[in-house]
Amino acid sequence: MSGNNASAATSKNSFNLFKWVKSGKGQKVAVIVTFMIAPLLLLLTFTYLPFFKMIEFSMYNMKYIGPREFVGLENYKEVFSRSDIFGAFKLSIYYMGASIVQLALALYFATLLSFKTKGGSFFKGAVFFPYLVCGIAVGFVFKFFYTRGFVFDTILQAIGFDLEKLPYWLKDTKINNISLAATSVWRYMGQNMVLFIGAIMSVDSELYESSSLDGANKWQQFKYIILPSIKTIVVLNLILSITGSLSAFEPPYVITGGTFGTATFFVMMNRIAHEHQKVGLASAMAVVLLGIIIIATILQKVFFAVAFNDGDDNSKKTAKRMKKNKKEVA
C-alpha cells in the first residue's frame, strides 16, 4: 500500500513538472536558458578558459611546442627587472596625452554640432568615418603619410617649410612617438564625438532658453549646463581612453614595427611571444598589464568621484538620515 502511495506521489510530481514546463512561465525560462547556452559556451571557451590558461602558462618557462619547466614567479620578476620591458610603459604617456587632446576636440565639435550648423550632418559622418576603418588599414595610411618626402612633408613644403629642415617623423626619437600617438586622435575622435552628441542632445532644451533669457553666453551655457549634465559620459570616455592607451598596439606595430624606440608594452609582448618564443614570459606580461589596467581604472574612478562630487551624494545621505530620524521619532 505504501509503495502505491509513493508511486502516486512520484507520478504527481512528474506531472506537475511537465505542467510547469508547458506553462507560460516555464516556456519563458526554457527560452531564456536556450538562448543563454550558446553565448555562455562561447564566452567560456574563448575568454575565461584562455585567461586561466594564460595565468598557468605565466608560471612556466615554455615555448609553443616543446617541454615546459615550472619556474613559479620568475617570469614576473623578469618583467619588473628588465628595463626594456617595463620601461615600455613610459611610451603610454604619449598615448595618454593624445587621448586628452582627442577627448577635448571631440567635446568641442560635439558641442558645436549638437545645435543647428550648416553641413553638420556631413561633418559628423566625415569625423566618425575613421573609426569605422580597420586599425591595420589606418596604420598603413599613416605609414605612407609620415614617410620622408610623402604626403605630410609635401603639405608642409607647400606652405613654405624646407624639406631638409623637417625631422624624420618616424625615425627621430624626439618626435616619432608623438607622431604615432597623433594617429589615435584622428581615428577615435569621431567615436567620442558621437557619444558626446548623444549625451548633449538629451539635455533639456528649456535650460538653454532660460539661461539665454538670463543673459548667459555660449561658454556659460557649456560650463554650467552642458558639462555638468554629461559629466558621467565625460568620465567614462576619459577612463576608457586612458586605460586603452596602456595597451596601444596597432600604430607602433604597423607603422614602425616597434623600431626606433616606439615599441609599446603590447608590441614588446607580441615580440617576445612570437619572435623569441618565450610564451611564459609573454603570459606574465599580459597578466601584469591586466593588473595595471585594473589598478589604473580604480584610481581613476576614485579620483573622478572626488573631483566631480558636487554635493549630490552628501545631500542624498542627509535626506536619508532625516527620513530615518523622522521614523524613529514617530
- Distance N terminus to C terminus? 61 Å
Tally of separate domains: 2
Give the spatial strand order of the biggest sheet.
1-2
- Class of the largest domain in CATH? Mainly Alpha
According to CATH, the homologous superfamily of the largest domain is: MetI-like
- Find the structural class using helix and strand composition: mainly alpha
* Parts with pLDDT < 50 across at least 5 consecutive residues: none
Specify the number of helices.
Answer: 16
Overview in brief:
This protein is mainly alpha-helical and about 325 residues long. It folds into 2 domains: about 15-80, no CATH class; about 85-315, MetI-like (MetI-like fold, Orthogonal Bundle), CATH 1.10.3720. About 75% of the residues lie in helices and about 0% in strands.
How would you characterize this protein structure?
The protein is mainly α and about 325 residues long. The chain folds into 2 domains: about 15-80, no CATH class; about 85-315, MetI-like (MetI-like fold, Orthogonal Bundle), CATH 1.10.3720. Helix content is about 75%, strand content about 0%. It is built from 16 helices and 2 strands. Strands 1-2 form a two-stranded antiparallel ribbon. Strand 1 (about 60) and strand 2 form a beta hairpin. The radius of gyration is 28 Å and the shape is globular. The protein starts with a helix and ends with a helix. The mean pLDDT is about 85.
